[in-house]
Amino acid sequence: MQLGLTATPKRNDNVDTYRYFGEPVYIYSLKEGVNDGFLTPFKVKRIKTTLDDYVYTSDDQIIEGEVEEGKIYEEADFNKIIVIKEREAKRVRVVLDGINQNEKTIIFCATQDHALAVRDLVNQMKESKDPNYCQRVTANDGARGEQFLREFQDNEKTIPTILTTSQKLSTGVDARNIRNIVLMRPVNSMIEFKQIIGRGTRLFDGKEYFTIYDFVDAYHHFADPEWDGDPVLEVCSKCGKDPCECEIKPPKICSVCGKSPCECEKPPKICPVCGKYPCECENPPNRKLKIKLRDGKEREIQHMIATSFWGADGKPISIQEFMDNMFGAMPEFFKSEEELRKIWSDPVTRKAFLEKISAIGFGKDELEMLQKMIDAEQSDLFDVLTYISFLTPPISRVERVKQAKEKIFAGLGEKQKEFLDFVLSKYEEKGVEELGEEKLPILLNLKYHAIADAVNALGAVESIRSTFFNFQKNLYAKET
After folding, report:
1. pLDDT at 454 over 50
2. Domain assignment of residue 409, given as a range
């Protein structure tokens, strides 16, 4: 008896496997894998810029090649027939600003040259000082590329952190800790799209989801019925068979010029270096059209990121549906507003609570997005939860501090008041993350420059910790 297991959809280059084992007797979908906890869920960030397409204007400089005036160069043209470095630099900047730069990331590029250019741009803009932070892994990178890939797959290693590629890493790469997939090239095949998404679905400790940064509108594949359906076979478009049974005919010889392919319909392109056709240079020049934007124009490139909510079945859901799902899930963790206040006012129980709801798809990013949706960006995440669960109107962090300050300071010495005043200013500025237990030593160092000086001013470390914990009960107490 032979048992065959595969995560690869049926296609022309593996059809013999299917013929050997027969059609699948059991199919387990991505949706089921996510729902059952065997695969990591994902979110999608769609990114649009003001240079997603390009029309040549005379104030731009043609560095190389010939421009077709009036032509709209679209996504499929970029980095294949036209190169605009400033456009790629903007995309790289958006990615690096959006991700945690310590998280492993794969960037899918249009060509091997494009992958090289993106690698160089990442390394120019990165925060890391390591020269191997970003590396290209393509067919042309040989043994050195394979070594970088092995190091990237090693979960004990952090370098390289980002890989750029064109086709090579879309399948067969088992790297469990990939947190970001960046699409900088169109993905026209549903099979390839599934394989690319599959790079991020591996489970890893602490990996609650991975993020797809989509510059090329690949998200439309999620709306395709084939996204989570049966394995799909790409049959020949002419004969309708798999494998293709079309008769392969030799190319026709032109009756006029006697050449194949014909050279008489279009004038041959003469090499600008050697003056011959075909080019006889030892290293033929790159024939891509290269454009340099006019001075300052690259600073005008704007971008917009639209983060959407997606269900486990790969289908987009509305903000209202997401909030409804969250409303239905919260009673598992608290039954009343008072119980939530008690959980939230203790840094230890608050952290444990946030970890639990993050594990079921309601992480910090989702809460912050809802914060924006209900126009509560200046409020506490606590207000997001009370609004969704109890329709309590949110108040700003500044207002919360103002309401609670008298109770917080009651019975404290001047030095303690001074320290908590500093803590509250950080809370008003940045939010509840400033009140975590792990933030206490950082806040003490910021205020006093050394823990020893903090102890001299405030007393023993345990006393400082107690003050830090206790004031939060008053901060989140219900106003009377």
Report:
1. yes
2. 397-475
Of 172, 176, 113, the C-alpha closest to 141 is 113
Domain co-membership, 182 together with 45: yes
Distance, CA of 84 to CA of 456 (rounded, Å): 59
Mean pLDDT of 58-70: 80
**Partner residues linked to 178 by β-bridges:** 104
Contacts of 406 by beta carbon, 8 Å cutoff, 6+ apart: none
Alpha carbon of 139 to those of 101, 166, 191: distances in Å?
Answer: 26, 9, 20
Task: State whether 29 and 160 are in the same domain.
Answer: yes
Task: Quote the pLDDT of residue 391.
Answer: 84
Same domain, 339 and 462: no
180 and 106 in a single domain? The answer is yes
Instruction: For residue 77, name the pLDDT band (cuts at 50, 70, 90).
Output: confident
Q: Which helix (H) or strand (E) holds 107?
A: strand 104-108
- Domain co-membership, 201 together with 105: yes
The Cα–Cα gap between 354 and 71 comes to 52
Judge contact between 222 and 43, C-beta under 8 A: no
- pTM of the entire structure? 0.54
Residue 251 confidence (pLDDT) above 60: no
- Cα–Cα dist 5/3, whole Å: 7
Indicate left, alpha or beta for 275 from its phi (over 0: left) and psi (-120 to 50: alpha).
left
CA distance 211 to 214: 9
Angstrom distance (rounded) from CA 308 to CA 223: 13
What does the pLDDT average to over 433-440? Answer: 90
Q: Could you say which of 223, 257, 280 is where a domain stops? A: 223
Contacts of 209 (CB under 8 A, 6+ apart): 40, 41, 42, 43, 361, 363
Q: How far apart are CA 111 and CA 128, in angstroms?
A: 26
User: Does 107 fall in a domain?
Assistant: yes
CATH code for position 37 = 3.40.50.300
Q: What is the pLDDT of residues 267-291, one digit of tens each?
A: 445 555 555 555 555 444 456 777 7
Q: Is 370 helix (H, G, I), strand (E, B) or coil?
A: helix
Phi and psi at residue 307, to the nearest 5°: -90, 130
**Among 367, 390, 413, where does a domain finish?**
390
**Residue 122 located in a structural domain:** yes
Q: How many domains does the chain have?
A: 3
**Within-domain flag for 456:** yes
Query: Do 171 and 37 belong to one domain?
Result: yes
Helix (H) or strand (E) holding 468: helix 461-475
